[in-house]
Write a structure and sequence with these properties.
Rossmann fold, 9 helices
Amino acid sequence: MTSEEKWYRIKKYEEVGSVLGDHDIVIVSINEEPRSERILKLVISGQINCSYLIIQLNCQLDDSIKRQIEESNIKVEYLDFVNNSNIQVKVMHYKKALLKIKYSNICIDMTGFSVPDLFIIMKMLKMNTQVKKIQVHYVEPTQYKYEMLVSNNYKYSQGQLDLIEIPGYGGRFDIKQKRILIIILGFEDKVSKYFYESVEPNHLIAINGFPSFIHKYKDISILNNSILESTGCEKIYHSAANNPFKLYNKLAEIIKLDPQANYTIAPIGPKPMSLGACLFQLENQKVKIQFTMPEKFSHKRVSDGGLRIWEYEV
């Protein structure tokens, strides 16, 4: 494998009727979206085997789930961020939890993790020489919710936005070269607009998730991002919304066209595509990745369901 093209293995589970996998450690993050508990419940039921469980709490865990965990024979470590979401505090706790790992087979359920949290964890695991195999799971939502059923009323990011540097993904900058912003399109116009205005690039490139989880999403993500028209976006590329490795390869294709430029990637689209951007930067560290953090995420209002599970071996 080279940094120019990534080969991959993906599995999709419509229903889980048997053991999904055997791992030394499973890492999950729980928020207010019910689908964030899906993989944890499979661990508790024995459909995913592990000897050690790391649970990040972004909200209170249901008492019945706590009891089931206590009744199991799985060793558990909680990372409680219910009242403290500061990224530097999280980095400190991730270091304590992940750099000491002496196991080789790791499973991450990225469903409930924010993009910065996921990226930091992936970086930590890459730094740990004991880790030999990483599988990433993602529970796909049945559908996304829109206020009053209007697609441009999708509101996931609440309050004031802040453009942050993700620790470990700062890239390198050459003042003599042009600045190119690559936006992986999501549904929120205010997020992409804020990103563009903050970075002030010389050129904008967009990547849209297509094929998408549901066919209409590829159109919604175009219609909801007014910067594509207002900035005269030079090129809109497409990459499968459920395949991080195709996004990896697409980024390699794009950057090869002008390898000396300063690239910033905005992973504000589907979570599997964000994972692809993460994997690409880990092997191409000249590239910078930034993220727009709101005052809070509205987990309760953004999606329904979550039965289909994607498994990526990274």
